[in-house]
Amino acid sequence: MSKLQGHASLTDQTTAAIRDTLAGRRRGLRAVLPFAGPAFICSVAYIDPGNFATNIQAGAKYNYSLLWVVLLANIVAMLFQGLSARLGIVTNRNLAELCRAHFPRPMVWAMWVASEGAAMATDLAEFLGGAIGLSLLFGIPLLWGMVVTALVTFGILAFQSRGYRPIELIISGLVGAIGLSYLIELFLVPADWGAAALGTVIPHLADSGALTLAVGIVGATVMPHAIYLHSSLTQDRAPARNEQERRALLRYSNIEVVVALTIAGLVNMAMVMMAAAAFHGGHEEVAEIETAYHTLVPLFGGAAAGVFMASLIASGLSSSAVGTMAGQVIMQGFVGFRIPIWVRRLVTMLPAFAVVAWGVNATQALIASQVVLSLVLPVPMIALLVLMRRPAVMGAYRYGRVTGTVAMTATTVVLALNLLLVLQMLGVPIPGLGVS
């Protein structure tokens, strides 16, 4: 058997295992594992380099006080990723395709432009993050780090031609590496667990700088491209052949979303806790990934800094691949045609190369990209809620009153945070927030 056939058979075996589970021939963990894939791929979007940038600043400057924002953002992410997967399983179409089919043409084009902008902002963060990690860990110029990131990303994406399972396993492995890195980090950089618990459950924004970071955290956590992508990934697996299978697929999908995004949320909280423990109260000026790396070395040794960089590289490489996959889904879904992945990657690389060429601070560019993502985020959130209310789209699988209320409340919170950010950028005083 050739290597290519071996990889293809891995996908076939997973599909067969899913069918066996749906038919009741598999039980326990063996029944759940074949369904692990789409949510883990999307979870990369929640632990990408943009999260590193915002979480480092949040922990260094505001200690544990913004952990509640991380928790809130992760709960919202869990809800909307679950709804996106549900949309794909029920309709066997993705969110972008359904937008094109059900919304007025001018609105579709406007949504496409906004979503493409979000995809480019995403790729900027992910590509820069991988390049920064490679540059710092191996002592190579940032430009060469970008070249290596591009080559590895192309290598990961090549596995798409071998079925859905190989790339799911690759991305899930990188997610595991990031999670393990931060588990180790919390042992190397001891945190104040009591303060972390208070920061998780007590909402507090100290000043306008905290507001900017809060919006950045939301933008770095609840990702527009991941909402589009999740509905597409369910199309590549085992479509439901009857209502019983559809209900089972939805049940297993919900389990996977909860597990994958719980892991991503814990990693995000660990990032903030590491930064708070390492930098707050002595190194609050640490606001860049590069500075964090160089500060960790004398404070906690090369092991802590090395683990930090290894997790950043794993995050940058995996999220670059996932961002490109999402960009393809957005392009094809909204405008109805496919472009080669290498063209997509080349186009979305250009902003990162431009940032380096113009001498823009890389970490600040990461933060800015997350704010852009937060501003675009309501587009897929609102579209998803509108489509999932329509009987013509979802039939009997429309969301219930409780789910709808929670989802609309979450969307309103995101819109309110965005409004506060816009007012702040315009210089309008915001009651309750001092000057950072």
How would you describe the overall organization of this protein?
It is a single chain. The protein is mostly helical and 436 residues long. The protein has one domain: Up-down Bundle (Amino acid/polyamine transporter I), CATH 1.20.1740.10. It contains 20 helices and no strands. It has helices spanning 3-22, 29-32, 38-43, 49-62, 67-91, 95-102, 105-138, 142-157, 164-188, 193-201, 208-221, 224-233, 243-279, 289-300, 302-335, 341-357, 362-376, 378-389, 391-394, 401-425. Helix 7 crosses helix 8. The radius of gyration is 21 Å and the shape is globular.
Radius of gyration: 21 Å
Beta percentage is under 5%
Distance between the termini: 63 Å
Number of beta strands:
0
Look at the helices and sheets and give the structural class. mainly alpha
Q: Helix proportion of residues, in percent?
A: over 70%
CATH topology: Amino acid/polyamine transporter I
The secondary-structure element order is: HHHHHHHHHHHHHHHHHHHH
Summarize the biggest pleated sheet.
none
Identify the notable features of this structure and list them briefly.
436 residues, 20 helices, globular, Amino acid/polyamine transporter I, mainly alpha, 78% helix, disordered N terminus
In short:
With 436 residues, the protein is mainly alpha-helical. It is built from 20 helices and no strands.
Set down the secondary structure blueprint.
Elements: H1 3-22, H2 29-32, H3 38-43, H4 49-62, H5 67-91, H6 95-102, H7 105-138, H8 142-157, H9 164-188, H10 193-201, H11 208-221, H12 224-233, H13 243-279, H14 289-300, H15 302-335, H16 341-357, H17 362-376, H18 378-389, H19 391-394, H20 401-425
Helix pairs in contact: 4-11, 4-13, 4-17, 5-10, 5-11, 5-12, 5-13, 6-15, 6-18, 7-8, 7-15, 7-16, 7-17, 8-15, 8-16, 9-13, 9-15, 11-17, 11-20, 12-15, 14-15, 15-16, 18-20
